Amino acid sequence: MFEFKYLQAKTLSEAAAFVAANPDAKLLAGGMTLIPTLKQRLAQPSHLVDIGGLPELRGIEVKDGRLVLGASTRHQEVAASPVVGQALPALAYLAGQIGDPQVRNRGTIGGSVANNDPAADYPAAVLALGATIVTTRREIAAGDFFQGMFATALEEGEIIVRLSFPLPQRAAYAKFPQPASGYAMTGVFIAETKTGIRLAVTGAGPGVFRWSDAESALAKKLHPAALDALAVAADDMNEDIHATREYRANLVKVMAKRAVQKLLD
Amino acid sequence: AGRNPHPLDLVAEGTVGSTFPNGCHIAEVEVDPETGVTEIVSYVAVDDCGNVINHSVVEGQIHGGVTQGAGQVFGEHAMYDPGSGQLLTGSFSDYFMPRAGFIRDIKMNEHAVPSKLNVLGAKGVGESGCTASLPTLANATLDALRPLGIQHLDMPLTPGMLWHAMQAAKSK
Fold first, then answer.
1. At the N or C end, where does chain B have fewer CB atoms within 10 A?
2. Is pLDDT of A89 > 90?
3. Pairing of strands A66-70, A139-141
4. How many CB atoms lie within 10 A of CB B65?
């Protein structure tokens, strides 16, 4: 690691003011992406501003038909929460599939969403459920938030405070893990909402995306067989040492069908 | 040992004969045609490592060795970029290793035939698990795909690799 200064923010406004005044400072929540990045010397922040303990970023509650999660809620807290287990069990399941127990004890939903790793799990749920990302400056709809590989709508110094999920009638998540890292090689989140079926795919393309052809087919018939005639273009898929684009395109269809089946079970 | 003995001084020499641990392993696997994932449904290992002095240690050696072979069959692969020579699988985020639970249940039996070549009658067990599990699991997987006309597969038999092999066989 390169040398940096560490400070623990006492309030959210103190943290926001500090990162606004120090553009080379980085926020630290769980550190499950940031710390390995620093260890490999892939980043050189001037300061780490630790916001993981801020009370403004905590909380799991259901309010007015929405599940609201504080940005620093750890994956293990979401996975084990009886509130989430009751209101949105598919999200608890998704959180329990992230990484391993050590990662889940530290990693946060705010950090995962702000980082927008193309193979992260949470973006699929956030997009499929049409969640709202509440920051220190505004509220951003999921559809406007994710802007490509590691890119989001967040401005310099803008901090995610909480995520607000409208509760669906039903939802399910089906994930094919990358065998070495455990990230999603393809993850499909499907939600049956007031506005219809929404289906989001992570891990397969440069960023999380909604498979609109699948959504239309499932609106007509909510059954895995409705996807039999469909395919995603292999050209739009990522290719790397772990999977070809053709294999990812195949996984999108297979995991989408499995997600539908889980929804119906 | 001379006038100033050192712990590494040679004290005596002898010859010890090679011993020949041996055994038979059987694996049953199922390959998911949609994803190419191979599930090891059943694994049986019968090994002759001569007289067994510590059964727990022998079990541990077989567990570890069989799992190590399984890792090589299904995922271990140090990959280099052909243009630059850069190691692409530089960490365990990219280099697959089998974890606990990769093989759920290994049924083991000892079949001890004492070695005549040493006073313990022991043959050794450290290499038995891996030596056996490599061909056992690779051939079981090949056997599962033989009805599709597939006659040869190179390790590692990753899900993507098997899926592509099945697709290629279908289009023939």
1. C
2. yes
3. unpaired
4. 22
